[in-house]
Amino acid sequence: MKLEDIGFYTLSDARARSVSWSSDLQRCELILTDRCNFKCLYCRGIKKDLQGDLTLEQAKEVVDIWASGNLHNIRFSGGEPTIWKDLLELVKYTKSKPSIEHIALSTNGSASLEYYLALIDAGVNDFSISLDACCAATADMMAGTNSRFNHISTIIRELAERTYVTVGVVLDERNNSELSNIISYASNLGVADIRIIPSAQSNHFLKIDGNTTRKILSYRLNNIKNGRHVRGITKTDCSKCHLVKDDMVILHGQHFPCVIYMREQGEPIGSVYGKTLEQIRAERKEWFEKTDTREQIICKNNCLDVCIDHNNVVESYQKE
Question: Terminus of the chain with fewer CB atoms < 10 Å: N or C?
């Protein structure tokens, strides 16, 4: 099984074989703002000392740093990135970098259709949209506000007709019983795939029966049927995170091992402004060498199945 064959296009087998501290950057994520127009209870938010908006100049500096490492895939997120005023200009700037193949956006789908279409025209070709319900009542409860459920459903349907769209379903005790219906509802909207995950607070073992032709969802459903948790590293898994070599998350000029580590309030590895990519990667290498992910509490409890599988594949190649 190759992860790119089941929908995880950034986690290719070629990447696992060739990753090093000097290989091309494969996937990087930039947090543009902590602000959001939803109030989801499961959202950890951003650490207080790192809250606020990036300036466009700061965001461009990060893109430039990553482009110097021949970055292939970039993601913009928040908070809610569509309320960050310079998003459209940043996407256009990013599109001008020749190595970047995919520009992804994580969004709650609340912006106007016209704005999302403008983002597609500017270069966004991958949308991950939150869909934690199959009806307005549950959607509002999960979002902690009027989620404009019908509007978001329309956005998902319209964008799915034009480009690659997946929906992310975060599950806790409030919506877990509706999971089958959420999957059915999302499927009818025409999405390319569905990513289900328990919230970090509940971190419960998902239970669901059923089959699907959507590859990422099928991967996760099969894991669940085989008794595997979506989150968590076991004693038999690789104890090193090889993703820190060619993957990066930056929030307010601080780089983190991954987005989950950042959202679970983990400490940054170091700053990025005024540094070369080589200096930043040297800091990441130091973190890599001293960190056993089977012992580091955030990694141990929250690392996702697909990231664990990728690291296990890298380790297997390095043993050859």
Answer: C
Number of domains comprising the chain: 1
State which amino acid sits at residue 119. Answer: L
CATH number, domain containing residue 42:
3.20.20.70
User: Burial, 36: exposed, middle or buried (Cβ in 10 Å; 0-12, 13-18, 19+)?
Assistant: buried
- Dist. CA 160–CA 108, nearest whole Å: 15
Question: 207: which 2 tokens?
Answer: 């239970």
The answer as to whether 103 is a domain residue is: yes
Give the 3-state secondary structure of 97-131: CCCCCEEEEEECCCCCHHHHHHHHHHCCCEEEEEC
Average pLDDT, the chain: 95
Per-residue pLDDT of 41-57, as tens digits, reads: 898 888 888 999 999 99
Give dist(CA 148, CA 300) in Å, integer. 36
Residue-range definition of the domain harbouring residue 263? 23-235+245-275
In a domain, 68, yes or no: yes
Q: pLDDT (tens digit, 9 = 90+) per residue, 120-150?
A: 999 999 999 999 999 999 999 999 999 999 9
Tell me the per-residue pLDDT of 197-231, one tens digit each, with 9 for 90 and over: 999 878 788 877 666 789 999 999 999 889 999 99
